[in-house]
Amino acid sequence: MSAIDPAFTALPIPSPAASSRSIARRILGRAARSTEFRIGLALFAILLLAAAVYPELSGIDPTKMDVRARLLPPLFMGDKWSWAHPLGTDQIGRDMLVRSVVGLRYSFLIGVASVAVTLLIGCVLGAVAGYFGGRVDTLAMRVTDAQLSIPMIILAIAVLGVSRPTIPAIILVLGLSNWPVYARVMRSVVMAERGREYVRAAQVSGATHARIILTLLIPLLAPPILLTSILDVARMMIFESTLGFLGLGVQPPTPTFGNIIADGRKYLLNAWWIATMPGVFLCLTLTSINLIGAAFERARNTIYGGV
Amino acid sequence: MAAAVLSVRNLSVDLALAGRERPILKDISFDMRPREIVGVVGASGSGKTVLSKAVVNWIEAPLAIRGGEVRFRDRDILAMAPGEMRRLRRDVAYVGANPMGALDPTLPVGRQIVEKIRAVAPEIGGAEAARRVVELLEAVRIPSAKARFHDYPSQFSGGMMQRALIVDAMVSNPTLLVADNVTQPLDVTVAAQVIRLMRELTERFETAVLFVSSSLPVAREAASRILVIDDGRLVEEQPTEALIASPRHPYTRELVSQVPAIWREAPAVPRGSNAERSAVVSLNDVSQTYRVRKRGAFAGASELRAVRRVTFDVFKGDSFAVVGESGCGKSTLMRLLSRLERPAGGEVLCEGQDISKLSGAGLLAFRRKLQLVLQDPFDSLPPRTAIGRMLEIPLRVHGWRDAGRIREKVRAVMNDVGLPDALYEELPTGLSAGQRQRVNVARAMVLDPEILLMDETLSALDQTEQFKLLALFEKLQREHSLTYIFISHDLAMVRKACNRIAVMYLGEVVELADNDRLFFDPGHPYTKALLSAMPTLEERRYRPEDCLLEGEPPSPIDLPTGCSFRSRCPQAFDRCVRENPLLTARGRTDLSSCHLVSSPSAIAAERASRSTGT
């Protein structure tokens, strides 16, 4: 029994003004009122805008070498800095700002897309396994176990070594290597939810299994999973650089966070900024997403908690 | 008069949740003497549970004690240090309403009770404590207590678990036992046993019991004096019989008047007019069998026969009831009727069509005709969907596309069941159990069904809410010419609302009769036992001592040979061991399956032999 009788937390019937808005809009409104959401959104918008327009607008080619201007430090650091390269240059004189921003594009694309693949496979398989149970469940979970037993690197070498390491292939490999965790989590929560009476009520009203899973269970269970998966975006970006070390990542000279960091590691002592700048961008991106996600989660909890 | 063992003075408890502070208990004062059972009665949300927790000094945030004192043996326990309170737990015990949640599922029951003894009375040795637990388990009539001592909670039935918890509370010979709604999750026959047990214990161990209950008849069974709580205030305190005979406070008067009368007055039950008595639902020899893994065996399965050869018809406009205790197959029957499952044998006909053969459009049409209202008001609504949307879903499933029309229909149904329009975009979070049940009814009504299947719809509600919802059902039946099938264990509700009743025991229908006949002239000993155990405010018609033996229904996995009720039937004789009685007609419309009911053909034969003899 819960410590608080539900009757005590019961609300008086809310005023008509509050109830005229739908739940989703109330959550959005509540999230938008918090400062962290605004900071996160502003940061995210700036980064997005920079990634979208800066390389073309500035006209700097991220792969253009300039040996005279190699290893320039960022603004106001040391004595050789220049306005032309606000974040300095790397060992062969490529502009760090434009490389980071273009890297952000690729890394973000790889991170988000591979997490999406992960979520799609994991959630669908987990939901189906948890909902139907029995043989379907056994089969799906054995597939999951099989997947878990294949190390990611081996899978990557097998797939990317045979085909060319193109971006779609990399996304697929990264996505395929991570879904079992999501499948297991999704399966267990769906299993718990499936036994609840409202699922039975939906069945009696004639809803098909697909409708129940898609309209009742997924909207209920997906948001917390989405929030945790944001952290996986960063993990995927790092994994991509791991692949880069094996020569199976995105091929140079295309800049991604992974291969910029991999390059910069050799110059860490005399040109720390090469490896640091992508890290800073990575950190900013993830912080902004996390701020937005956390604000949403808190708004969700307050609205659904009935406060 | 003995000195009070517990005296509560001006106790006030507040809810201290930021933004929602309000008082829960206001100025409660009462006394309890040794060996006395005091009942506390009130609606849900009136503060009964908070009171029972305050008495054992178990008030936790967000609740806060605002004032007053609880004196136990002349010491204020609210002001006690935690360490001191812990020693006092030996004398003050608490049993809650949820026996399944109160025990650790990973430890044997006996060990947990021993743990409790050793915590409150460290001087008792382990072996001695175990011996005492076994002794007490025997005292509460748990069969083969020595073996049960090592069983896990999952191996106990609900009734046994509640008794084990009473042992857990009584094991240290407490002076005061607080029993918060202990009989609520139990079946009537088992609840009657638990109440009897509690009475015996007060005499054996000189314990005073504070018996909190949401039902006045149950409190009357147990208590010699009753406190009535309304909205956190103690409004009346009288000896039980006096309270029922002459309630003084208007709230008590209302409470007493809302208890359904069983024997005194004939209820105004609906009756389909004779001209159009066509069967809308018929069950023909329906059986359902589940395969369950054999206990204690490596492989192999045993058959659980949940429903056995059930046959009955439900006529248009009827309020049909299926009653029985938990495990009798009511819920399986509900799943068969609503086609969540297909029967293993026999057929379920809805207006002449076998529903297990339906699919596609035919199935959807059947779904429109028969809808289900579920039991648990908290589990049956998706927690994060707005109420309006919840009600829209069935319409969308059935092919409604025009958003405006859907909205209109949903609003109309919400008005019908008495939900304000303002709830359309609200979550169910803040609703009371009664309002949630209205949403449940609305969800079923939104498809304009002809038959509503009520699966224990009222059992989670308190009396006042039940009363209101029954009135609503009556209204809906009148306006929409509905047929109801109630599945229930609450005979008082059935007496008030239904015209035809089927009694189930271990998967079989043992009696099928009209309301009056069933209550006044039951044909089956089990029906009589149920009636005798039913708590009411009236004079008993059947004495429990004559009607029911101790114990619980046998497991449906290994059914006894012959009549399945014989293990608890006081009238069992040899023939009951040998053969299972068939449903036999008693009069024009009523049926009962007992060897003691003589069949019309047997009567005729006897008459014939008598006439030839003379």
TrEMBL record, chain A:
GO terms for cellular component: plasma membrane. It is found in: Cell membrane. The keyword Transmembrane helix applies. InterPro entries: BP-dependent_transpt_permease, MetI-like, MetI-like_sf. The chain crosses the membrane at residues 35-54, 106-134, 211-231, 271-292. PROSITE patterns: ABC_TM1 (PS50928). Keywords: Cell membrane, Membrane, Peptide transport, Protein transport, Transmembrane, Transmembrane helix, Transport. Gene3D superfamilies: MetI-like. One of its GO terms (biological process) is transmembrane transport. It is a multi-pass membrane protein. Residues 104-293 form the ABC transmembrane type-1 domain. Its main location: membrane. Pfam families: BPD_transp_1. It comes from the Bacteria. Belongs to the binding-protein-dependent transport system permease family. This is Peptide ABC transporter permease.
Automatic annotation (TrEMBL), chain B:
GO terms for cellular component: plasma membrane. It holds the Pfam family oligo_HPY. It is found in: Cell inner membrane. Belongs to the ABC transporter superfamily. SMART domains: AAA. It is a peripheral membrane protein. Residues 8-256, 281-531 form the ABC transporter domain. The keyword Hydrolase does not apply. GO terms for molecular function: ATP binding; ATP hydrolysis activity. Keywords: ATP-binding, Nucleotide-binding, Transport. The keyword Nucleotide-binding applies. CDD domains: ABC_NikE_OppD_transporters (cd03257). This is Glutathione ABC transporter ATP-binding protein. One of its GO terms (biological process) is peptide transport.
